[in-house]
Amino acid sequence: MAMITIYQKPTCSTCRETVKLVEASGQAFTAVNYYEKPFTKAQLKGLLNKAGLSAKRILRTKEDIYKKLGLAKKNLTDEELIDLMVKHPDLIQRPLVENHPVDLGKVALHYWEGRGVNRSFPVCRSRLTTVFPSNT
Question: What helix, strand, coil percent values describe the chain, rounded to 5?
């Protein structure tokens, strides 16, 4: 079993860059297209719990579905947001990189912080480079 799981949308340039970065590190990983193999509520909730994150931290606010559902004007619970994310995966920040450190016994979840995430790729790239150093 791979120690790294990348939950991604393969057509996303940021996801593709992340996959390349982890490939360059030489570490084994599994890439999961969460549009073809959707998150279950329990799976997404478990990931967030293991990482100590709220659903709001991985909510994509620039997506059309976010605006269509009027989410900016709603004060939803994490349970409600997770339900919406499972139903509408475009609401999930991507990629999510799950690292299973053997010695720590818990999951580290790396994700894109902030809004307008595509322009912040160099910041996240440096964080991921620290986590997944290249073998070259």
Answer: 45, 15, 40
